[in-house]
């Protein structure tokens, strides 16, 4: 499988996860956990071996359990199979749940039951709060780290958050604070090469040929809604 084809398969799987996460009103960290599991699974197995939609379904179910976002298998089945003006049969729902439970065990086994996943969202909000980042920049930064790529498998969460926030400032053409008296400024100065590397990795998605752009565009639209909801909830805490 070519690099672009594998990336497209990952994008499609993550798009499914995010769409269903939106329907289920899952917290963004639960969607991120499901996405990270999906990437982790396919770093060990091929898309030719397992259908991406089956693995994505299982990842959502596992993430709901591990992050204590209480959603039953029946809830996931109805959200995943939902189509306007269509009534789901009990038989179809039961078949979905049976497959879900089967692939849940496969995903857990292949990923070695490793649920230790550090998300960059909390680090991002800490940096943003420290340097009084405008909301538009924060939303842009969130859009850059919506787990379309397996960044969490390659880099630490703080570095990902730093790169995304820096890209958010650049995206809005706003000069970013570089005061070395701040934790943000010190981290930026000490890890400039790594942050540049992460920014380059994030931009890989945007370099895909036009034939792949629809998947990326649809995923970005869903992320914008989810990110706004999460940021709003975070401000209430």
From TrEMBL:
RNA-binding recorded as keyword: no
Domain Cyclin-like stretches: 15-109
Matches recorded under InterPro entries: Cyclin-like_dom, Cyclin-like_sf, Cyclin/Ssn8, Cyclin_N
Species name: Mucor plumbeus
Protein name (Swiss-Prot/TrEMBL): Cyclin-like domain-containing protein
Keywords assigned by UniProt, alphabetized: Cyclin
Biological process terms in GO annotation: regulation of transcription by RNA polymerase II
Source superkingdom: Eukaryota
Tagged with keyword Hydrolase: no
Entry GO MF terms: cyclin-dependent protein serine/threonine kinase regulator activity
Stated family: Belongs to the cyclin family.
Residue ranges of the region described as Disordered: 214-237
PANTHER family according to UniProt: CYCLIN (PTHR10026)
């Amino acid at each position: 499988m070519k690099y672009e084809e594998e990336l497209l398969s990952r994008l499609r799987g993550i798009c499914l996860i995010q769409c269903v996460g939106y329907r289920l009103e899952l917290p963004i960290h639960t969607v991120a956990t499901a996405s990270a599991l999906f990437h982790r699974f396919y770093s060990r197995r091929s898309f030719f071996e397992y259908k991406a939609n089956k693995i994505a379904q299982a990842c959502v179910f596992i993430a709901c359990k591990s992050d204590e976002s209480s959603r039953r298998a029946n809830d996931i089945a109805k959200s995943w199979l939902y189509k306007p003006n269509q009534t789901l049969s009990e038989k179809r729902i039961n078949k979905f749940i049976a497959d879900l439970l089967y692939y849940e065990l496969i995903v857990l086994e292949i990923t070695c039951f490793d649920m230790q996943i550090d998300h960059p969202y909390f680090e991002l909000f800490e940096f943003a709060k420290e340097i009084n980042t405008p909301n538009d920049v924060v939303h842009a930064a969130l859009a850059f780290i919506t787990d379309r790529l397996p960044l969490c498998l390659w880099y630490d969460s703080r570095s990902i958050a730093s790169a995304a926030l820096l890209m958010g400032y650049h995206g809005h053409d706003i000069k970013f604070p570089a005061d070395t008296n701040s934790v943000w400024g010190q981290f930026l100065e000490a890890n400039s090469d790594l942050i540049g590397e992460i920014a380059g990795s994030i931009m890989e998605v945007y370099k895909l040929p036009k034939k792949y752009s629809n998947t990326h565009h649809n995923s970005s639209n869903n992320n914008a809604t989810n990110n706004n909801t999460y940021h709003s909830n975070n401000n209430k805490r």
